[in-house]
## 1
Amino acid sequence: MGRPHSQDRAQVRLEWGLAGASAVSVNATYTVVVDVLSFTTTLSVATDAGIDVYPYRWRNASALDHARKHGATLAVGRLEARDSENAAEVSLSPQAVRAASGLRRIVLPSPNGSTISVELAEAGARVLGACLRNHSAVADWLSARFRDSPGSAVAVIAAGERWPDGSLRPAVEDLWGAGSVITVLRERGVTDFSPEAEAAAAAFGAVRPHLADALMTCSSGRELCEAGFSGDVAVAAEVDTSESVPVLVDGRFVDAARHAGQSV
């Protein structure tokens, strides 16, 4: 008998944050990390441009060493980039990555989506990154593998944000993003969902007709808009504009199409 919190009776599972990821990724064939208003939207923009993305837990001296080791640019925080006199600095902002020139490798530290990705990979999971921009592409990639391996399972992780005390703040935009992937899996013929996954799909279905407005007015969207980053929210709302499927291979996210001949 499996552990109750693992949702291991279902082919498609859904949980929140790092602890949730650890619980539901057990025996999952793939894990999909969703961090809509930060990491995975920026990740999708980067992989669209052919940029390799190295996830990292925190931006500190070790992150700089990690970037130097891989010949990569280390991203700074949005606010740090906004207030910097160095106009060339790249931040954890999809707009900033889209506007940057000459980037080939970038280290993107974050306490949520990036950290979860690193932790899952270190535990042996096969990790993908999804957001609203590429949710159909990710779901199509997964459903093709489910057809080849009917016993496969996927754990979809809504990254969430952090309250000031460091505890998890469930962020509704990540629920919508996770639900968008799950919805397309259902449309492609997948039928075995945990109740948690069903709830995420229902949440996406409810908000789908007015998704762009909801992203702007949800708590995380308002926070970004009031800090001057409404453009990042607009990029996050570019539903199904990306065909990239970021997979974490050897410590870096790359588009699956570039590694079609490798086991991912």
## 2
Amino acid sequence: MRTPLLPMPVEVPVGAVLPYAGPINACTRSALAAQGWLFCDGAQVSAVTYPALYALIGPLYGTPVTQGDPPATLFYLPDYRGAFLRGVNQDATRPPDGKGLRDPDADTRLSARYGSSGQGEGNQGNSVGSQQLDAFQKHEHRYTQPQQTSEVPGDQAPPVQLGLATQPADTDGVVAAKGGDTPRAEAETRPLNVYVNFIIKAQATVLAPNAAAVAVCQNLKDCWGAAGSETCKGGGGTSS
């Protein structure tokens, strides 16, 4: 008789980021915080409450600030809302010839909290925490250039140059291959994607469940809905 395999304990390091399939609202924030997880929304959190995470990321996502008496240090969480995550390029090059970085614009990446000038707080360039704005790769299309033509109306007459008039106009269509599907033209270039919330492991210690949250949101369905509209806050979702 085989001995059944015992479950292995899973150690999730502080600073690990995971996609979270549930909504983020007052109910789920309390439940996640009790398990040591925070929502990656760029919020300020206390270095006293989350010393391990502060020791790990410190100013990477914005310069820590102090407030209160005695002063307490607050630092910024990463903000992954509405963004795709990308591995730091470091020195990785493009296959197969190894010429150029996989991210050719790695050195010009913006800081984690950038302003209109492109400057801001936090890491920038080829470093964790930096970010890029959306872009479309440079390219060009072949086209036929109109040429001015001339005609000779008779044997004795000089050539007559036929003028070529052009008038600028906005396009009202999109380029599509003949017989292909209708292209989806939108405000950004993107692949098929699904929304998730990203959460970060902020402390290793698992706390006792938040008694107030448990009392208000006893049914998990109470946590359904957008922030501020879940049933335990007076609307949205489904309760039973």
## 3
Amino acid sequence: MAYINLLPWRDAARKERQKQYLTVLTATAMFSFLLIFVVNMIYSARIDGQMQRNNYLANEIKVLDQRIKEISMLNDTKKSLQQRMSLIEQLQGSRNLGTQIMDEIAQAVPAGVYLTQLEKKGTSLLLVGRSESNNRLSNLLREADDSELLASPLLEFIEAGKDSASLLSNFKMHLKVEGFEAVQGEAPVAPAAKGGAK
């Protein structure tokens, strides 16, 4: 006689398969969740590290910007001091210039030539005066040309005196001062000496 199993073995097998399926599904879900969590932690740590590096670089850039501003201010101060030193050197170099010009002109002006006005503007000199003869003015031009301090003598005009009894001629002459830089705003070397004579 054949053996017949009357128990619901198909239902039991189906339930066992469902249980295994749920177990595998749960394990897969947990493994996936764990994997996503680990990957998220790794990338979060990397992002945090990069943010810290970015903040560090930003702080260092701020420090460098501040130092660049300080260096720029120091450069401006240095330029200002150099300009002041240059001006002081020019003033020191031209301190005795007025006396030297007066001495040089006194040596260059021959007898018979009388200066009535002497004016200095920058490196230019203006001489106005009277002369007994044109030869004496020629001597003055030669002396000024041979001078180490005076240069480029230029006679603007010579005219006979308006007074017919006078033998003196009026003249106007321009000279250059060499070897000294003109100091801006410098006053004339000497006030106009009206009626002065050599």
## 4
Amino acid sequence: MTYEELAFGGGDPNRESWLRSWMAAHIRLLIASLVVLSLAGAGGWYLYERSWLPQPPPDVALSPFLEFEVVMCGCSGITAATVEQRQETEAMLRAMPQVTSVKVKSGQEQADQRRRSYEGIGDIRRAEGSSPGGDVLHGVLRRAQDFPAIVEKMKSAPRVSTVSRSGVNFWAGKAEAEITLCGQDFMSRAAPGCRQSKRAGAAGAVTEEEKAAIVARLWDLPGVQTIYFQDPGYALKLAKLSDPDYKPDAPMSGSFFVKFSDPALARAIAPAIESMPGVVAVWPVLPKE
């Protein structure tokens, strides 16, 4: 057999006839295999692309949030509450049948926690500005509708600064940082990142292009594991867990929440993101108490 015969079959009619017969018999299998391989490749790319898109909030059961805060006076220029006044206020709360528990945290403890949280996302300016305020009494309601009774009772308490419902800390343990996006609320109108996004002469909500640029910048940061997107509807849903009657003055803003493989790597997020167009601010996600 010559080299040409070895390479091309040497024109053997029996071999060519067998090959044509085999291909004819298996043509459907060959086509099906090619289709499956093409779809698998397309599906793999689709899943890859999807893994880089912001994910919806984790699907977990939600329940009413019954915590509230009573802040004692302690701000600069205002006479601070004494230890005795704080103890009197605490005793008043503990005696109320609408309250199931009360925990006290000093103003210094609060300031230290804020400082550590801002340092954790690389916001040194806010970390250094975390000065102590008044002591805070963290209480838990028996029912959500009992909060007005707390407000009324605290009118007679000595040296109370504010009484408020505590916000739902849904994202504790699920993310290290929140990126609040420009919307139509007061904070958005005042934020430099929103004034850069003017539409028809007025500050407007974040655009899809700006959101895409923020996501791309986030994926460039080391250790970013998951990016979640909380739309305004979900933000309102969470707010109503603590205050069923809550009605915002303007539509709530959307936010990205970012989970890092190592929480220490979150220090890069504020310097990289806070000045981008479409961003109101970058906030730390506080840990659970």
